[in-house]
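REVIEWER CHECKLIST
Item 1: Sequence provided? yes
Item 2: Single chain? yes
Item 3: Sequence as submitted:
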Amino acid sequence: MPEILTILAAAEEGYAAPSAFGVQDYQWVSLAMLVLFGVFLWKKVPGLITGGLDAKIAEIKQQLDEAKTLRAEAELLRDEYAAKIAGAQADAEKMMEGASREADAILAKAETDAKAMVTRRQRMAEDKIAAAERDAVAGVKAKAVEAATAASRKLIAERHTGEADAKLADEVISAL
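Item 4: Structure as written out by the authors:
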């Protein structure tokens, strides 16, 4: 090891740098780099690197395409559900309008039915009153007829004689 130190110390003092096979140290480094690059090219390392990068690029493109597809599907679903919501709101509004019309129709029918029932009950009450009036008039007439019959019986019994019967019979026969 002392020899290496001597060589290094001599190089620092302006002496010539060591060389092997007549090739200087910087030339050895250049040669080693050329050999390394040659091995890289021989083993197709740049192709492997570009192939790996291309595969990564293709994978990223595939992921981007998949993301675009998923985004398009999501937008379609969003639009579909927005349309469904709008349709549901329209259906709800139609149902409310229908229910309102049905309620109005039910109220109108109930009002008409109530008027018809009032009219019918009024007519029934008037018919009952008319029937009661007829019964009362018939009762009064019957009493009047009974009273007139009783009075005529009494008058006829008091004033009617055999001559009057014969005269009455003759008048009836001649009228026929």
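Item 5: Key structural point noted by reviewer: The chain is about 90% helix and 0% strand.
Item 6: Recommendation: ____
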